[in-house]
Design a protein that fits this description.
The chain is built from 21 helices and 14 strands. The protein has 541 residues and is α/β, with parallel strands linked by helices. It has 2 domains: 215 residues, D-Maltodextrin-Binding Protein, domain 2; 236 residues, Periplasmic binding protein-like II (D-Maltodextrin-Binding Protein, domain 2), CATH 3.40.190.10. Strands 2-1-3-11 form a 4-stranded mixed β-sheet. A 4-stranded mixed β-sheet has the order 6-9-5-10. Helix 9 crosses helix 21, helix 12 packs parallel to helix 19 and helix 19 packs antiparallel against helix 20. The two termini are 23 Å apart. The structure holds calcium ion (CA). Calcium ion binds next to loops.
Length: 541
């Protein structure tokens, strides 16, 4: 296949005469007439992609509220522009994984899977057995939009490149960078003002504030009902992982950070131990941590911000309003990372967060891979990527005077989330809206915009430079990770809670380390390091 496409490229340069002399597309002599017609029908650049309509069969999941894709305006426009007619087989997203597996097992293959949701296992295994084809040569020749993106962003290229060096699936990503720090740390500024305290900048000032919240009745009801600090232990966006940074090493839900290309397991480091000692001695023992922080669910947690008398002093959540409500939100402010006893001030950078890499695959049953690649490449043009993800021009967006896509008002009695399902294949669809596209090509939604500004103001200046990227693992690596990691993390998390609540960290530390040893910590970290080294080597390719 590779040589054919190289040949086709030369043919194009040599002009129309040479095209008719091309030896066909490799499907055998009996197809020669058809393939010659195809070669002349196919335009290697520009639109339409084909002069006479060519049909492709694609399988795609669809959301509950979404119409069949053949009725979606965005795809009808694409068909008009390209002359490529897609015969969609839409599967309700709840049944998709099962149906996809059946199709793949039966060998009754469509030309492509769209918004395909292929896992790393599937990309590698179906790539290896030839069910889906490698795409890198097709990208080079027929996908100028995607190629430009991958040239500009080696991190995306490295993310979607399988350990065997092939690209089997195309990326899907809305890179709004809002997940870099999920742990927004909030404090009751109305109480600080009342008590004559300034907004804490150091861990010590923060501890003083919590103590004042507990003992000085800042809500003025004569009862000691204030909750100085509440959180949800080891839960996304609600844990105190960020506060470990005051001791020099932020924690995260995986207990895994990267510095200078080296993977570090946080939960065995001296900084982590020091933080646990502090949280126990200074906070838990003095009653400053809500004991339910280790047991409550989100509903209980969120209710604490909305008690009749204001009772919540400080908490962790990615949006102030969601916890305390819009009225009360004005009483609360965000805290930047607190400066620790030795002057450390850092916040973690969340792991992963790269592109989805299995959002579009071409199968071996496809006799028009070059047409298919040109069709899908339209969706890697940033304006089209935005419309594929959120909805089309004149329905969801209009262009402002700078040509940027800005949101039109929603139809009455429709939420943004619902409307999106009806007019766009959505977030799992192929296409990358890169960070630099937001604000230039397309507007962020208002809530997202606020979050981006808060991150910039409070956290980005203190953020760790590196994270553990969304790496494409070998199946054998994934097997080992899945064997070791869940039990190990469960043990670490249980101990973390115990060390904060009961103390005893110094006494139990050696046993704790020995247990982790036995559970395979070293092997686990070696796998993560090897995979990271491979990813970093790919960046330089
Ligand atoms: Ca009170």
């Amino acid at each position: 296949m590779k040589s054919l496409f190289k040949g086709a490229g030369i043919v194009m340069l040599a002009g129309a005469f040479a095209v008719s002399g091309c030896s066909g597309n490799g499907n055998g002599a009996n197809n020669q007439a058809g393939s010659q017609k195809q070669e002349t029908n196919f335009n290697q650049t520009g639109l339409p992609i084909v002069n006479e309509v060519v049909s492709l069969k694609m399988v795609s999941p669809k959301a509950a509220l979404a119409p069949e894709f053949k009725e979606m305006e965005i795809f009808n426009r694409l068909e008009k522009d390209t002359n490529v007619k897609v015969n969609w087989e839409n599967i309700p997203d709840t049944d998709y994984t099962e149906k996809k597996n059946l199709l793949l097992a039966s060998g009754d293959l469509p030309d492509a899977f769209y918004a395909a949701g292929f896992t790393d296992y599937e990309l590698i295994n179906y790539g290896k057995d030839g069910t889906i084809i490698p795409l890198e040569d097709l990208i080079d020749q027929y996908a100028p939009n995607l190629k430009a993106l991958l040239d500009r962003r080696p991190d995306i290229k490295s993310s979607i490149t399988a350990p065997d060096g092939h690209i089997y699936g195309l990326p899907s990503w809305e890179e709004n960078n809002l997940g870099t720090n999920p742990f927004f740390h909030v404090i009751n500024k109305a109480w600080l003002d009342k008590l004559g305290l300034k907004v804490p900048q150091t861990l010590e000032e923060y501890t003083e504030a919590l103590l004042a919240f507990k003992t000085l009745d800042p809500n003025g009801n004569g009862k000691q009902d204030e909750i100085p600090l509440s959180f949800m232990h080891m839960q996304w966006c609600m844990d105190i992982a960020g506060l470990f940074g005051a001791f020099g090493l932020p924690d995260n839900l995986e207990h895994r950070v990267v510095r200078d290309g080296k993977v570090i397991f946080t939960a065995t480091q001296p900084e982590y131990k020091e933080a646990l000692n502090y949280f126990h001695e200074k906070w838990y023992k003095q009653g400053l941590i809500d004991p339910e922080s280790f047991t409550q669910d989100a509903a209980q947690y969120l209710a604490k911000g909305k008690t009749t008398d204001e009772t919540l002093g400080s908490y962790v959540w990615w949006e102030v309003e969601e916890v305390v409500g819009t009225e009360r939100a004005k009483d609360y402010v965000l805290l930047s990372p607190l400066k620790g006893p030795d002057g450390d001030q850092t916040i973690g950078r969340a792991n992963g967060g790269g592109p989805g890499r299995g959002s579009f695959v071409i199968t071996k049953g496809n006799s028009n891979p070059e047409i298919t690649m040109r069709w899908i490449d339209q969706q890697f043009e940033p304006y089209m990527a935005a419309q594929i993800h959120w909805g089309p021009l004149d329905i969801v967006y209009k262009k402002d005077q700078n040509g940027k896509l800005v949101n039109l008002p929603l139809p009455e009695r429709t939420s943004a989330g619902e409307f999106r399902q009806k007019v766009a294949p959505g977030s799992g669809a192929p296409g990358v809206i890169a960070f630099e596209d937001f604000g230039k090509v397309v507007d962020m939604e208002p809530r997202a915009q606020q979050r981006a500004e808060d991150l910039e103001q409070y956290y980005n200046p203190y953020m760790e430079k590196e994270n553990y990227p969304g790496i494409f693992f070998e199946p054998e690596e994934l097997d080992k990770i899945n064997k070791i990691e869940p039990e190990l993390i469960k043990y670490v998390n249980t101990q973390r809670g115990r060390f904060i609540v009961d103390g005893g960290t110094d006494k139990e530390w050696d046993n704790y380390l020995k247990t982790l040893d036995k559970m395979g910590l070293e092997e686990l970290m070696e796998i993560y390091q090897t995979a990271l080294d491979r990813y970093n080597a790919n960046l330089k390719k």
